[in-house]
Design brief:
This is Phosphopantothenate--cysteine ligase 1. Pathway: Cofactor biosynthesis; coenzyme A biosynthesis; CoA from (R)-pantothenate: step 2/5. Helix content is 38%, strand content 22%. By secondary structure, it is α/β, with parallel strands linked by helices. The strands form four sheets. An eight-stranded mixed beta sheet has the order 7-4-1-8-11-12-13-14, sandwiched between helices. Strands 2-3 form a two-stranded antiparallel sheet. A two-stranded antiparallel sheet has the order 5-6. Strand 5 and strand 6 form a beta hairpin. Helix 3 crosses helix 9. Bound molecules: ligand PMT. The site of ligand PMT has 21 residues, from helix 3 and strand 11. Ligand PMT binds next to helix 3 and strand 11.
């Protein structure tokens, strides 16, 4: 694969050099290495996937009070993680703090307040109406964590997300074709560079706010060419105008040389997606005659299948 241009290279280096350092890097790196060791080299020779989920924030102040957010509930990432664990993958779930978690999709928004009740002062119990959902959430999550096939790493800002994605990608380099990136997170396209950001809360007394946002360098090309060139890579394209969706996804496929782009429209994203790849476009829908079916059941089946073919072809 061709390496990306020097200009992009410089933009990416200067993004990382000017980013505030990742606070808990010393904790993350050994956790990540242990997880990869256990799942790939150790026990099982499992495939490992990094699922990104939720939206990144762009702080407007260094001691952040205000920020710009990117829309994503985290549902796609959480549901895909569950299906990938079921398919035998070890999953690194890189998620935005506070967004939807694997195995928790059927819990109410405020599980602690809505699921539990106190029959008397010394006891707490799950309300009968939520007991099945709580039991499944606890059991499934405990099994995934106990078997060592789910590692959850949270982020909030664009700085944290991209630094963590780079750490994960470089740590997965030796896993080669058996590694996958499933990039469902909604990543900020614009940001305020840390070095030009005001330290303290912006004062409203000074009149209308006039800020200039720089473009976040696209990391996909770099992930493909440098960080993890042998990994199977799936990116996403979200649009609100269905007329431009497939064209934009096709352009992204060609530009970033990913293996497939999952195209989705905001309003219909839970009903159908289109998997755009060099072998053609495939519409994937949830089974409308089964109320429990979700689009990720069929999407992950297709992606796992494509990944298997990719691994086979990489060995020949
Ligand atoms: O979470 P849900 O509510 O369930 O919704 C799921 C979803 C709609 C958020 C998800 O299916 C989805 O489409 N996620 C990607 C949305 C997006 O922000 O697309 P984009 O066009 O900005 O980015 C396209 C790709 O480029 C993404 O895979 C992203 O990881 C990558 N990117 C983006 C910006 C950037 N600076 N660098 C990147 O590498």
């Amino acid at each position: 694969m061709n390496s990306i241009s020097g200009l992009e290279d410089d933009e990416i280096s200067s993004f990382f050099e000017s980013s505030p350092p990742l606070k808990n890097k010393e904790e993350i790196v050994p956790k990540l290495n242990r997880f990869i060791e256990l799942n790939f080299s150790g026990q099982g020779g499992k495939r490992i996937v990094c699922v990104t989920s939720g939206g990144t924030t762009v702080p407007l102040e260094q001691r952040c009070v205000r920020y710009i957010d990117n829309f994503s509930s985290g549902n796609r990432g959480a549901a895909s993680t569950e299906n990938l664990v079921k398919a035998g993958y070890a999953v690194i779930f890189l998620y935005r703090r506070g967004t939807c978690q694997p195995y928790c999709r059927f819990l109410p928004d405020d599980p602690f307040l809505e699921c539990f009740e106190f029959p008397d002062a010394n006891n707490i119990r799950v309300h009968a109406s939520h007991s099945e959902a709580v039991k499944m959430a606890v059991l499934d999550q405990q099994v995934a964590v106990a078997e060592g096939c789910l590692l959850k790493l949270p982020f909030s800002t664009i700085y944290e997300y991209l630094q963590m994605l780079r750490l994960i990608a470089t740590a997965l380099k030796d896993v080669g074709p058996c590694s996958m990136f499933f990039l469902a997170a909604a990543v900020s396209d614009f940001y305020v560079p840390w070095t030009s950001m005001t330290e303290h809360k912006i004062q409203s007394g000074s009149g209308p706010l006039d800020i200039s946002l720089a473009q976040v360098p696209k990391m996909l090309s770099f992930l493909r060419s440098n960080w993890a060139p042998k990994a199977f890579c799936i990116s996403f394209k979200l649009e609100t105008d269905s007329k431009i969706l497939i064209e934009k996804a096709t352009k992204a496929l060609q530009k970033y040389k990913v293996h497939a782009v999952v195209a989705n429209e905001l309003l219909t994203r839970k009903e159908e997606v289109v998997v755009v790849s060099s072998s053609g476009n495939v519409v994937v829908r949830r089974d409308s005659d089964n109320p429990k079916s979700i689009v990720e059941d069929n999407l992950i089946r297709l992606i796992v299948d494509r990944h298997s073919t990719y691994i086979k072809e990489s060995h020949t």
